[in-house]
Design goal:
Distance between the termini: 47 Å
Number of domains: 1
Number of helices: 5
Largest sheet: 2 strands, antiparallel
Strand content: 15-25%
Low-confidence stretches: 97-117
Helix content: 25-40%
């Protein structure tokens, strides 16, 4: 698997004082995720913080700060999320069948329901 993604809209880091560009980020290089990455993302995600969870996993995978991740163009973000998904076990991917232990990550319940009470 190719672990790099060329950004369609590169990021520029600038100095606060002069606005001078000090670094240009054209490419993201992903590293395989480890358990600590998932734990950090879960902690960052809190109760319903799916955005924070994705942000934390992506930031840790490419060694980038959260603020820089937030500045990614949406097209680049979607492409990066596709790359990131390739590092996740099938049970954590969209449409996967999570184990009972991991059900909280997918938002599903072991019985396949969404937890809503019948009316």
């Amino acid at each position: 698997m190719d672990n790099t993604l060329t950004l369609t809209k590169p990021l520029e880091r600038k100095t606060k004082d002069t606005g001078e560009v000090v670094e240009r980020i054209d490419t993201l290089t992903f590293r395989p995720l480890v358990a600590g990455d998932l734990f950090a993302a879960l902690d960052a995600g809190g109760e319903a913080g799916q955005g924070s969870l994705v942000r934390a996993l992506l930031a840790r995978s490419v060694n980038m700060g959260h603020k820089d991740v937030d500045r990614l163009d949406l097209e680049d973000l979607v492409a990066a999320m596709g790359k990131l998904e390739g590092f996740l076990p099938a049970s954590l991917r969209t449409g996967g069948k999570p184990s009972a232990l991991l059900q909280g990550l997918s938002g599903s319940r072991p019985d396949g329901s969404d937890g809503a009470q019948p009316s």
